[in-house]
């Protein structure tokens, strides 16, 4: 398959149906196809050739969606840039992948002089935001208006479609090369469950479009011929207003976003009855937040997706019916239709059911490799199996339970403690809004279990209360020896808690 295939199908079958909705701007499939063909022509006019990398530094918009189509239409490779990165991190990624062209909106135009100075291969910068383009940049709409449409390259299969940089939670970001087939396999496998997107439905892009979680949803929605609705960035009010106004049927959110939605004053005053599917992932969601979300979206089924960028990104899915099961709802689900999943030991041998090992996955969704890092690729993908670095176990019915990042396992007094188990216990307390558990050096025990908690209100709960609460639910050696309260947890652009940052900012005493 190839990235633009769904657009061609929609133009053939529903040319006048809405393709994108962004604010007051709605464009049909026919309009989108014409604009994409012209934009691809403009890229080729500026000597973008097969395999060239074209970067995007922008918030969500209908133009972002057009770029996901126009760049492969021109036979180039898109590189979505993390909008939460510093200039230094952006410069690193642009130089490493050799991006020659950058699309930037008004929110990041001020970065451009510094990027030009530090990225000598960056020859063309195109302003894709609202308003007039700065003098040192080309204007997106002017390019479309002046360019002639060109034929679609239609080069799919194993050809690279995009390079997604990992969030850098474990060090220097790596460029994950994903092919057209990688992205199509993950999208179609997820869509095949019926719990992801609906043909002709309306998908709300509220999570950042630079991240592959939302990118995978974009692929699935494009394949089934639905409408893309965008808000520039997440806010509870913007999301609820878009759902109510546009009749949104599906969306993807991280648990922190869902928690903000259910806690938004007046949330139940919005009409959310159109929503049929809510996909979430990146981190576990507490059962209390899940119950509140089910009440806020009474007609929606909830699906948890587990995976990673290297898996395009879906490996397992916890479908809507499983969310009503008292045990399975705490799992990450079972292997998605396009994936094979195993739990293996240090010798890559499958372990017995119920035994903790490393989660590995195999299938057409496994990445092509890391950009310019063959050794890292060989270490991660062995005999076709992507090694996730996540520790987990599988039950007799194939449900996978994630217990921790293997490197994050805490060894205290000779006992193994998985932070997820402690976090689940803490999250059951009504005064805990969010939490993270890490291991800190300890002279007596080697490591001690340390909890960082964001309370629902200042002073809503004490350290002693939380320790006693946990002791009633988990073993004593798993109970946090120390508890720290904060206003917020450090988060990546994908909504993952940055435990590396927590360790750096937490005193070891």
From TrEMBL:
It comes from Tomitella cavernea. It comes from the Bacteria. GO terms for molecular function: ligase activity. PANTHER family: LONG-CHAIN-FATTY-ACID--COA LIGASE, NONRIBOSOMAL PEPTIDE SYNTHASE PES1 (EUROFUNG)-RELATED. SUPFAM superfamilies: Acetyl-CoA synthetase-like. Keywords: Ligase. This is Long-chain fatty acid--CoA ligase. InterPro entries: AMP-bd_C, AMP-bd_C_sf, AMP-binding_CS, AMP-dep_synth/lig_dom, ANL_N_sf, ATP-dep_AMP-bd_enzyme.
